[in-house]
Structure prediction request, 194 residues.
Amino acid sequence: MTSERTYHHGDLRRAVLTAALDVIEADGPDALSLRDLARRAGVSHAAPAHHFKDRTGLLTAVAAEGYALFADALADAAGLRERGVAYVRFASDHPAHFQVMFRPELLRADDPALLAAKSRATEELRAGIGELPHTAHGDEARLAGIAAWSLAHGFATLLLSGNLTDALEGRTPEDVFRTLAGLVFARRSGGTGD
Prediction:
């Protein structure tokens, strides 16, 4: 939880974002209230509106930050399989961001910061698809991208919702995902899926 001291150090925006992430991780984005976040940050109920205007603005800021962190995580991964692992690890490390990023009904779709961060993340995701030998041409590349995204996103969602606990059988989510990606893409491409 964020303390009043954070605000007095001059970073109300960060204090409210941090408090929002705490609430979202614990109770989901639907539990978010600017009034509650102001109380948590130790400021007047109107103070968060100065930075975010309203709840949608705050959720859009959370998503934009999430997409920027996501793009960074993907950029550090080499190959399609490791980009998928980075996707899963990002969801695990940033569950509040992940919950908000893929809920367009909660966001301002035309927000410049959101659009820029989302575009960068999309480019990082697409960079791995071009490495598959069978994706040299248009529609196959697009469909391979959808397949890779579906696998990583579905696995991450199942992981966060606690539905993979037994299936992991004591292995790390990253190791299990690497195996799954290898099975799916090795058969398709005739290679290892790296």
